Amino acid sequence: MAEAAGPPAAATPLLSAATRERIRTACARYPAARSAALPALWAAQDQLGHVPPEAMAEVAAELGIGAAEVEAVATFYAMYFRRPPGRHFIQVCTNVSCALRGAEGLLRHLEERLGIPDGGTTLDGAFTLESTVECLGACGGAPALQVDRYSHEDCTPDRVDRLLERLRAEPGPTGAPR
Amino acid sequence: MSAAPSPPPELVTLTVDGRAVSVPAGTLVWDACEKAGVFVPVYCAHKKMDPVAVCRMCLIEVGTMPKLQPACATVVQAGMEVRTATDRVQRFRQGNMEFLLLNHPLDCPVCDRGGECDLQDFAQRYGPPRSRTAITGKVHFDKARPLSDRIMLDQERCILCWRCVRYCDEITGDRAIVLQERAVHTVVDTFEGRPLTGPFQGNLPEVCPVGALTHTAYRFRSRPWDLQRTPSVCPGCSYGCTVGIDSRDNAVVRFVSQDNPDVDDSWLCDRGRYGFPELNRQDRVLTAELSLEGPVRAVGALEAVGAAARALAGVLERHDPDQVACLGTPQMTNEEAFCLQWLGRDVIGTPHLDHQLEPWPDLAPDEFRLAIRELEDCDTVVVLGERPEAATPVLTLRLYKAERKRGRQVLRIAADADPTELAGRVRDRGRVGVVAHEADRDRARAVATALAAANGSVHRLTLTEGMNGRGCKDLGLLPGLGPGYRRLDRAGMHGRAILAAAAEGRLRALVVVGPNPEMEQDPAYEAAIARVPLVVALTPVRGLLSRHAQALLPGRTMAEKQGTVTSSEGRVQRIRVALQPRIGAPPPELRLLVELGRSLGGTWESAPLATPAFDVICDAVPAYRGTRGGLRAAWPGTGGAA
Amino acid sequence: MAAEELRILTRHLGAPGVTGLPGYEAVGGYRSLRRALGMTPEAITAEVKASGLRGRGGAAFPTATKWGFLPQDVFPRYLCVNADESEPGCFKDRVLLEELPHQLLEGTLIAAVALQASHAFLYVRGEYRAPRELLDRCVAEAYRAGYAGQGVAGSRFGCELVVHGGAGAYICGEETALLDSLEGLRGQPRLKPPFPAVRGLYGQPTVVNNVETLSNLPYIIEHGGAAYAALGTEASPGTRLFCVSGHVERPGTFEVPMGHTTFRDLIALAGGVRTGHVLKAMQPGGGSMQVLGPEHLDLALDFKAVADAGSSLGAGALVVMDETTCMVDVSMRLVDFYHHESCGKCVPCREGTYFESRLMHRLEAGLASADELLTLADICEHMEGRCFCPLGDTATWFVMSAYRRFADEFRAHCGAGCCPVRAAAEAAA
Ligand SMILES: Cc1cc2nc3c(=O)[nH]c(=O)nc-3n(C[C@H](O)[C@H](O)[C@H](O)COP(=O)(O)O)c2cc1C
Ligand code: SF4
Ligand code: FES
To answer: Which of B494, B551, B623, C268 could pair with B633 in a Cys bridge, judged by C-beta atoms 3.0 to 4.6 Å apart?
Structure first.
């Protein structure tokens, strides 16, 4: 049966051999290969910094499912980026526990320091700032934020400033496997 | 195959709004309500798809359960008390309608579904009297974006009932349309919005309960109340899908599917559904034309019949009837096909008649034994090559249903595969179905024989070419086989031989009913008919045939006439007049054929109308008795009518 | 009586190297697993039954009873560890994942033995990247030491451990959504019945248990179910982790015996309401649950007592709010959370949370009319109990309970043009 036209096969695949290997290893760990959809998208994002459609199609081919099925999954989960964010992705938790302990102030502080509004990316592409209503599970250290998927708790303006200094010096997202 | 009679299902009695109703165990409350005559509104539920219970529209009260329950996903239980009209249910429906309309663009005035939209209907019936939200606060999505050259998607109108997504998953299996994003931003779309390519897209607007998926071919064409619907049969192939022909101003504007669970299961293929413009063709033969002596002149149809009869009689006086032949077409109705074989065989006295090019020397009764619906009951279905599904696309959906919903094995093999190796690939011993195109009959027979050695019961379904190719065969529009496959003493020439004889100048006259796309595409056709001194042609459209006829009689398209046609599986179904002939239009083709025969001295025992003609057919072919309700003809030794 | 922690689940917390296998074995780790391997599955389940252990994921369903729903003789069977902890105000599973990962793996393997599960999948929320990486390392250690894979600890029982990272979707904590997510689909709840115990992952019998639930198993097997049951009260046996956050001096996670401890004790453990302020409201159980007030301070942490007060212990959290808190603001944040996290599957939840969120933003900004407040209540009524899964219900619980309790505060926002609570606070400052 004919499918909705997939993308033309890219001349050079986006996913590296190492990423493909990661995906295949993941597939082998489940009773059914398609279970590896989430780990496979993580592998793609770890390599590329985001998951463009071509990568979804390549993931689909690895899992033996349709590209549309992968896109359905990729767009459901909040942590897969469709477009490349800044080098460092800063997420400020604004859910209740953090809000009670000054999350809004922290967010304002970051907006000022970075010179971008909530949701923006700095011109040099170093930072994307976003507030999130998703509780980061760090309420014990509220207010909390996450940089490249690693938590930072008890954030005071001073500590955040020092963090920004450090991050500016770091070449890539701290989330990527080293 | 007559499926083993399953034990009668256990009945469960429940009450719906106080009315007792008994339904088989396992029935959904929604269906039980329908049986009790109680209407329950639904959006996501669909008779052909598994329940998902996402729209919540069908929530009703059940017994003492504290929460409202989805009628579409709740299974009946004995003694269950279902209440669908309580204040709580009414209030909920009002609230749910408010939710559904919250982000809906309310663009009914320019929506193709206006008048046949469940959102409109239920808003009217159950909705809140006024809106509590500003129209400015809506979430916006893509409007009017082509999903292909056939289908438009309007994401704003979509109520996310998941039907299109489930259609692509459960019915076609191509999973081309999926849900994307989450929460209130959820939409349906293809991968990156890329075009759909499947052959069954036209069903999407029909499963969509609102105006989110629409036919490009029907955009801004009409409101449903301006349409007239005529139940009929799709002329696209021999599968026999039932359609509603929607017409307006004497033109067909669309085909809609009708659910016939035995055949189409409510689906149409795009080739059939979007083939309707053929019925609106402008290059029509509207009056009779004669060029028997001198230049072409337009005459009345019956006058032309008289002239044609005289010319034919003249040929028969001078020549042997053997030098005359009749060619029909699988597009003819049964009544016309039967009449043509009467005209040729009994009146003219020629053995040379056919409706197709290739020879059809014999009939094995089991070739047609398997019914389409029984495919689902076969443990394994073997499909020979790609021709069956290419000829009758909707078959693909039945095969997928057998595979996915019934867990059957569908084995697609090359048409020329070695039958002896096949037995090992059949998963379970048990009932096996063999599906083949008529061109591969011999191979199918070999496969069936090989499988029968290893498996108990093997039954075959043969797919014939053309809307009524099967009927033409059943009714004897074949050389050497009379109505009901009666073997005749005198064998005649088959289609290709007739053309060859004509090309060699061995035929003095030819009576042709068109159009016959198979023949007309054959390179030998034109040269052949051009060499015949007298061509009497009956066709609705201009083309090769009309150009070379000396007596040209105006025919009708299948939308303009009535009669019956027989599908590949032997089901005899009615076609009806969808486009009324104008006053003064020529008589139907059947009448012209009968009059032609009568003018040549033949006796046609009944009125020249479809219904009495069918009685004549039943007398000649007893298998056709009792098929009137759209049933399969009951051939001796093939398991009886079904 | 001074508030005191009772460390059972966290008894090894902080032990040297306990996040690694040698450190964990040094405090007696994996002895319970060995013992369990010597018991019949029925005997393990019987111990768990005796312990009275109830699920810590939120619904507090008796664990042994849940295990008992598996149909006999249908294999393979699967165990899923729910480490999707995303409930606002909850961070207790994270403590167990970060500090005592091997205890969780041991508990998981014990449950796998009891259930005869061939695979145990640990579904860790996407945001917990660091804990997940730690878990990956621990699983590798467990495989190397022979605690996982074929022939667990030298027995004939085999079980694969698979760590599965989520990717940012609260709904995947709901057990059937978790299963779909594990199968590589959009994490949306499934139609029930059939329940996962009958047809779960890949259509096979499946049990989903919370991290904390399973982390209790090593203790229960080591000391016996009766000893565990003796720790709490009859109706609420055992100890439980509570996450205290918000306006307290020292937010954190505390392990206390159930039934014997009160909300007051819990707040005391967290250093009390922040100095100079008084308690206005508290939300137990995580973002889903109904608000309680100062009059509930002496309520015991007992399933029934809290239910009778109109709320629930839910997933073991307590958010403390002092008098500076605007209840409309808090409600708005929670509503936004559910709006963001609705999976979009069913109409009342998808559209209702959007409607709610829009109204709450208008209300918080002081722009809503009194009529809109009625609309809000109306929407919530049309959502509660009508949605496909409990997410839609819970999206109404806090806001409606806050509205009932702080009706004046809600009304004061109507047409005020700003948040009156914040305005008052700013004026006072
Ligand atoms: C919307 C929703 C979110 C949930 N989130 C979680 C969660 O993050 N972690 C969890 O353990 N259980 C969560 N649950 C409860 C699970 O569905 C399930 O009951 C639980 O994991 C069972 O484990 P237990 O019996 O050990 O408590 C959630 C339920 C719902 C309805
Ligand atoms: S496009 Fe139509 S069929 Fe598809 S989900 Fe939307 S409303 Fe349903
Ligand atoms: S029809 Fe039952 S929930 Fe949609």
So the answer is: B623
